[in-house]
Amino acid sequence: MSSTVQQTRAARERLKKLLKLPGNSTCADCSTPGRPNWASVSLGVFLCRDCATIHRGLGSHVSRVRSVGLDEWTTAQVDKMERWGNAAANAYFEASVPYDARLSAAGTTTNQRRTRFLRDKYEKCNFVGPTRSGATDPADPRNGGVPGQAPAPPLENGMPEGEAVKEAMRRSLFDAKPKSAEDLLSFDAPAPAAAPAPDLFGARAPRDSPPAAPAPDLFGGAPPGPVDLFGAPPPPPAGFASPPAQHAGQRRRPAPRARTTASWPCSRNRTRAPRSR
């Protein structure tokens, strides 16, 4: 007899013993009494026919279903079933499940409700303990976890503990590095220089400040003084010819326009030819 056949027979004998243990004699999801003929190798639970059908629809990345009496089993797969079982798996996946959300026996639950419950239980991991991290938890049987395994350390700033320490060290070294006036490799834009605030109310300068020098006159005249909006206009600078005075009410005549004589022929300048008789 080949070793493969002996290994298959030994695996089936171990599975029969596991089905007699408390908790494994009913379905792990709907608690249907009787001997479950199906099992999820990746989750380590025994299932009834109806729940095994829903498990197949979840995908092999969530649950891998095998028949207890028809399919071939490896030693590693049977070891995982012995390690977990229905009681340990439900203690992990149903740690915080509401009482009214549990499934009833097969035949009294619709397929829609059964599918919704199994997706929440195994795919979304909505009923695991509050200290668990869902499908990425190391204690999950699909990740090689064992029953009673301590939860993973909490994430700091959304990253594992080791990565958080590296990020903190990198930030401390970056903050300790003195930045030059023009740091071209910095991601922080330099702060713009503050513009002087406009003097809207003409505040006086402090007494200890020296008087401001007058601005140079580019046209050679006297330095400009304060502008009087309601006074007489300032005199024109030297060398500027002012236009002649104009009396009030006198209108300036426009310049005469030069007349041009048209050289086009007109009907009066035409001479009629004598009419022949």
From TrEMBL:
SMART domains: ArfGap (SM00105). Keywords: Metal-binding, Zinc, Zinc-finger. The keyword Zinc applies. The keyword NAD does not apply. PROSITE patterns: ARFGAP. Pfam families: ArfGap. Residues 239-248 have a biased composition (Low complexity). Residues 12-135 form the Arf-GAP domain. It comes from the Eukaryota. Residues 128-160, 196-277 are annotated as: Disordered. PANTHER family: FI20236P1 (PTHR45705:SF1). This is Arf-GAP domain-containing protein.
